[in-house]
Amino acid sequence: MDGVIFLPVTQDLEPLHILRRAGIAVVVLERFVPGFSCILADEHCGGLLATQHLLDLSHRRIGCIAHAGDSTSSVARAEGYRAALLQAKILRERTLILECDEGYVPGNLPRTVSTTSATPDSRWLPITISWPLKP
Which domain holds residue 105? Predict the structure, then answer.
């Protein structure tokens, strides 16, 4: 093997160091790790553009779901969401920003959120979803 594309899903970066010691080239996706080649998306811009798109479609009550334990991509997307609302001079409603404590499983909504205002029958059609996938 000549190289590895590595997408970290935990805080444990020891596999990167093992690969380096073995002489294998590594490119890290979606996280900045000093000393390694990294490819990062502009998550802030993504949250901003997604929210602006919904605003352009005349939606005004736009929710944002963020992964509570994510310190990088989810936070940046949520900041982009807030920036788009601010630019549009729309007051953000705290009840439309949810922090999910669990990972995302394709096809399922988060099982828990950190606000009591969310109910299973809530109308959350225009949303920016922002949480990492579980492996």
Answer: 43-130
